[in-house]
Amino acid sequence: MKEWRCLLAGKLVNDELTHKVESAVKERLLKTSQDKSVEDSTAGGDQVNYRRASRLLFQAVLAAAKLTFFEQLEQFPWEMISLLSGHPVVRAHSLHMLHSLFKVHEKDIKNGHVVSTNPELGNYIVNPDQNLNSMEERIKMSLVPRTPKWKGIFGVKPTSQQFKNALKDYDIFFYSGHGCGTKYLVGEDIQKIQVQAASLLFGCDSIGLMSLGRLVENWGTAQSYLIGCSPCIVGTLWAVTDQDTDRLALNMLHHWLPPTEEMKKRMSLVEPKDKRPLRNDLRQEARQFMTSAAFAAIGLPIKLHSEFD
């Protein structure tokens, strides 16, 4: 796509660079229109100007890209293409669904992102099937000190009411286990509640789509969360390995969440003033390519900030 690859990258949020790009394009168009011998103008001059504009575009800080696909293409890991590396990316199953989520969360949207005002209001369910003991120990060792004010359970089967409360009463929900937990709360029940939490579903095939026949659209658990108005769902498109998934999940939380008071004291950190988006480049923490490629975010772009911002 050469210079036209910028069309995939989302909206520019750096006004100064936007102005430079527009000026460069207008300058070239004006020069071409005033040239009496347009046919004699060299292709090399055009290439220089297009490259100049392209460089300016990719120096800019870009808003999160929103990707909407034909359903047969949704299982493809589009987030892995080099253009989107290190760039916030979210998927949307349809523009209608994206618009519905926007209307529900409109009051919390600032500069194109849903802003969660309380990242300390989180809940987790880890190893509910009680057969991933090594995974449970790895998660507990890092999750508890990193999220001291979160509530949740390790190695305990949740009731349907516990699962509902985790989704509707908290800003962040972290699930780590087999699948996406629908054996504890089925999709039909998720659709009926107002899902407040950004849902992080770190299990195999947690947001993958299933074919239900030729006459209906593919379907997956993520649709139930979207119908329940969850602002964002992060999960996997296919089966993944537990160690790589744990590494990626914990690193994502570590970089996404603001530092704890203990971290700031120990490392002399100052609370950052810029809000913290979910970053696409954090998938590189996984050692296996297929695990890294499996993760995707669906819904609206979301950022966190603390009460100190």
Automatic annotation (TrEMBL):
Q: Name one GO molecular function term.
A: cysteine-type endopeptidase activity
Native organism: Timema tahoe
Domain named Peptidase C50 is located at 119-215
Reaction equations catalysed: All bonds known to be hydrolyzed by this endopeptidase have arginine in P1 and an acidic residue in P4. P6 is often occupied by an acidic residue or by a hydroxy-amino-acid residue, the phosphorylation of which enhances cleavage
Q: Which GO terms describe its cellular component?
A: centrosome; cytoplasm; mitotic spindle; nucleus
Which enzyme class, named as a word? hydrolase
Q: Which UniProt keywords apply?
A: Chromosome partition, Hydrolase
**Protein name according to UniProt:** separase
Query: Which InterPro entries does this UniProt record tie to the protein?
Result: Peptidase_C50 (IPR005314), SEPARIN_core_dom (IPR030397)
Swiss-Prot/TrEMBL GO biological process terms: meiotic chromosome separation; proteolysis
Q: Which domain of life is it from?
A: Eukaryota
Entry's EC annotation: 3.4.22.49
